[in-house]
Design a protein that fits this description.
Mean pLDDT: 94
Shape: globular
Number of helices: 24
Helix content: 25-40%
Low-confidence stretches: none
Radius of gyration: 25 Å
Strand order of the largest sheet: 11-10-9-12-13-14-15
Structural class: alpha/beta
């Protein structure tokens, strides 16, 4: 008898590994699993109903990865199941994006039996060289933890560690589940003890010292401001950030990736700071500040309008999940949440600069315009006026990603865009996951995506129909890849696309008049009429709007960022 058999006999409450894994996922709030079935994961998928988990079933693994990412951004954590080799590699681009942008996704890979792996059998879905570890090694570079469940003796421990690290680091983890381990036994009594997802406390003495250093700079500052970015969202520091904004009264701004991190109806909110692409009046206030409290910054090119930030480290205090930097002095091993909490308690009186007021009013040149073309300068303030509280709004890499900067959100809006990774087509797949999580929360989901981007991942509309999800999808029809045209190749054939009948596509995927309605909108008057339509606004069915815009029109921020990218490319 093997040691594994002996250990199994000694378990008081034996439970199958797959059941243990899926019950742990359900425990941390995941209600639906994305993915594609394959022969190495089929038996594991049979456990989902027993664990109170829904199977989504996506059209392909790349879309499933995008969807799990979107689900995680709304729900807090997501999960995807793929099969060995062919399935997991199709998803790796999406998981790399989640890693890049700090999104917690559990990636479960159904693998061949442990015996097959040890003997190096010439199996399908392999490279034919007997190396069964090569794909896990690839994923290791875009995962914060890898758990290969090759032995039931440590499977439960590895599962718990993987889920904990996924949550705490807010990045994907990889769990390899061989088919012969699916039904192997682990101790079910472990499920009686919830996973410990609490972040380690900061060293109290060190934390107090850092707070005092921050306060000294803050009290000396004449024009301090707060700048919030994506990692405040990803590392769950929004409550601490909100309390700081309330207690300090300081002018507060967000970076593009930080849209939605701050209540934009708050009196202290001033708009988006992104260097040259900032909202009107914002750049002057931020760049003249003598102290910037920067919370969760990600200073990528698209997030800074081509690295046009003009704020020096000498005037900046950076708060992050694992360090605080005060000017040029860095304090590692200090989580921003503890520091921010103590900072709020000790703030005292601060010097307050007036906050610029961002509204959704149309630009002056658009107010009395007789132009009926839907331009970006007109569209995005109009979208801001139309949005509702608690909407989930997704904007695709391209014109929409930059255009959304020009809106002031109602309270409780979640914004999703892939500013750093920037994988074209991401937003449509992500919409499926976001809409699923939004449906669970009773929220409306809205997508703005380009016609070129839609062609990469359009199949996921089928999954939305199957799941009775009702997002509102605006396909910006502007004859191809406008963002690429601005970077290079105004009239080049590689930036052109074949025009599609977008609003007819859902019918191809099986939609009917009962669950779908499509529109073609070409004028401002038509769009205003649609925005005023209560049936449209209720989002009681899937709706897709072909939104026609000029081929070469783009938000100013995109033009500036593209110009900077073109200059860098030319100089390299």
């Amino acid at each position: 008898m093997s040691s594994t058999d002996i250990a199994t006999r000694e378990l008081k409450n034996p439970i199958d590994v797959a059941e243990y894994l899926f019950k742990r996922l359900r425990e941390v709030g995941i209600k639906a699993i994305h993915g594609v079935p394959g022969d190495f994961n089929l038996v594991a998928l049979d456990y989902l109903p027993k664990c109170d988990l829904d199977w989504v079933g996506n059209c392909n693994e790349l879309n499933a990865g995008y969807a799990a990412d979107g689900y995680a951004r709304v729900n807090g954590m997501g999960a995807i199941v793929t099969t060995f080799g062919v399935g997991e590699l199709s998803a790796i681009n999406a998981l790399a994006g989640a890693y890049s942008e700090f999104v917690p996704v559990v990636h479960i890979v159904g693998m061949p039996t442990t015996a097959s792996q040890k003997s190096g059998l010439l199996l399908h879905h392999t490279l034919g060289n007997g190396d069964f570890g090569v794909f896990a090694k690839m994923s290791k570079e875009v995962s914060c933890y890898v758990a290969l469940l090759n032995d039931p003796l440590n499977a439960a421990t590895l599962i718990d560690s993987a889920i904990r690290e996924c949550y705490l680091q807010s990045r994907p983890v990889y769990i390899g589940l061989p088919t012969d381990i699916v039904e192997a036994k682990v101790d079910g009594d472990r499920l009686l003890t919830p996973l410990d997802l609490d972040e380690p406390d900061n060293d109290s003495e060190k934390e107090d010292y850092v707070v005092d250093v921050v306060l000294k700079s803050l009290h000396a500052a004449k024009h301090p401001v707060i700048l919030v970015d994506a990692c405040a969202i990803r590392h769950r520091a929004l409550d601490e950030t909100r309390h700081l904004i309330e207690a300090s009264g300081l002018p507060t701004f967000v970076a593009p990736m930080g849209k939605g991190a701050v209540d934009e109806t708050h009196r202290n909110y001033g708009g988006v700071y992104a260097g040259d692409g900032s909202n009107a009046g914002v750049r002057e206030v931020v760049e003249s500040s003598d102290l910037i409290l920067s919370i969760g910054a990600i200073k990528s090119d698209f997030n800074t309008t081509g690295f046009t930030y003009r704020i020096g480290q000498l005037n900046t205090i950076d708060f992050h999940s694992n360090y605080v930097r005060v000017r040029y002095s860095e304090y590692p091993g200090i989580n921003m949440k503890g520091v921010l909490r103590k900072l709020v308690k000790k703030l005292g009186k601060l010097n307050i600069t007036p906050t610029p007021k961002l509204t959704n009013a149309l630009p002056e040149e658009e107010l009395n315009s007789t132009n009926q073309e839907i331009t970006h300068a007109w569209l995005w303030p109009s979208v801001g006026q139309w949005m509702k509280e608690k909407d989930i709004i997704l904007t695709e890499t391209g014109t929409a990603n930059f255009g959304i900067w020009e809106t002031r959100f109602p309270a409780g809006v979640t914004a999703i865009s892939q500013v750093l990774w920037g994988s074209i087509g991401y937003a449509l797949g992500s919409t499926q996951g976001a809409a699923l999580a939004g449906k669970e929360q009773g929220r409306r989901t809205i997508l703005f995506i380009g016609d070129g981007s839609t062609q990469l991942t359009v199949q996921e509309i089928s999954t939305m129909i199957k799941g009775k999800l009702n997002p509102i999808i605006f396909v910006i029809c502007n004859d191809g890849y406008t963002i690429e045209r601005w970077i290079h190749g105004w009239d080049s054939v590689y930036n052109d696309i074949q025009p599609w009948d977008f609003h007819g596509i859902p019918k191809v995927f099986g939609a009917t008049d009962d669950n779908y309605k499509g529109y073609r909108i070409k004028t401002r008057e038509e769009l205003n009429t649609l925005f005023a339509n209560e049936e449209f606004n209720s989002a009681s069915k899937l709706q897709l709007v072909e939104l026609y815009m000029p081929r070469d029109d783009a938000p100013k921020a995109l033009q500036l960022t593209a110009s900077a990218a073109a200059e860098r490319n030319a100089s390299q």
